[in-house]
Amino acid sequence: MKSRFGEKNLTKLNGIVLAVLLMSGALTIAIPSVLPSAYAAGNKPGKIDTFFITTVGSTSITLVWLPPTDIGSSAIQGYQIERQGPQETGYTIIGTNGPTDTNFTDGPPDRPALTTGTTYNYKVTAFNAAGLGPASTGRHATTLLQPGVTLSPDPANPTNSAFPVTATFTDIVTGFEASEVVITNGDLSGFSGSGSVYTFTVQPSINGLVTVNIPAGVAQDLLSNVNTASNTLSTNFDNVHPVITLLGSSSLDVELGSSYVDAGATAFDDPDGDITDSIVVGGIVDTSVLGTYTITYDVTDSVGNAADQVIRTVNVGD
């Protein structure tokens, strides 16, 4: 015989039994005070736990992170990147990445260059349709110092000859070649060196100002940081010889026993000007003795350029 109790009556019976059990204390039901995050309406992403700095250069810092374990109630829509610079009291938003882009470079080529030798702090926050989650734990890094370079020694000024130059970098560098040296009014020769010290010679071309320098970005250290610009060496090249001009005749006849007073000479140099007082006179005239006497006139300018010697001949006769 088939039962006529039916499903509807069975459901009522089950409800009565459950009520009796609850009232008697024979059955206890635990109800959680907080629903799991997967069931919470409009839940934001959790905190990003895996966040680190992978690359530090002289003008850039690269960040990498993994998505939070708890993405919240909907898919991650992106990430907000914040930075705190030196002497800043809070963080500033510097970028926003898409949901699959979990790295960020603060610095060139897409952002302005950071300051070398400076510490920066960073945080990353995930967000979804419900909003921003909690920020990650901060990470910090200090940008590297770029290798500097100093040119020495200072050449004599003015000069009338080639002069040596030593380029000393603050770190071992590669990629530095003779063609990277910038010289005005001169030529480079004898380039040699490696590591952090290089030497070469500068031969001035024509009279005037000569300068030597090394621009920024022509060499790099082992971490690919490019150099800063060097100091500039400068001097004035002077290879113009002074000119001596005799006063009076270059050949004179003097009577035996008479007195002789030399008329002298003048000297002029570009750029020194009048250097007559520097003339060196050689030779004597003895009017008490017959004969031919020679008086010489010589002078050099401040850098050692010598004038052509000028001679006066004095004939002592009766």
Q: Structural class of the helices, strands and pairings?
A: mainly beta
CATH architecture of the largest domain: Sandwich
How far apart are the first and last residues' alpha carbons, in Å?
Answer: 180 Å
Poorly predicted tracts of residues: 16-22, 29-41
CATH class of the largest domain: Mainly Beta
The CATH fourth-level homologous superfamily of the largest domain: Immunoglobulins
CATH topology of the largest domain: Immunoglobulin-like
Supply the number of structural domains: 3
Outline, from the CA principal axes? rod-shaped
SSE string: HEEEEEEEEEEEEEEEEEEEEEE
Gyration radius, to the nearest Å?
46 Å
Q: What is the mean pLDDT?
A: 89
Number of helices: 1
The count of β-strands is: 22
* β-sheet strand percentage: 35-45%
Largest sheet: 5 strands, antiparallel
Task: State the share of residues found in helices, binned by percent.
Answer: under 10%
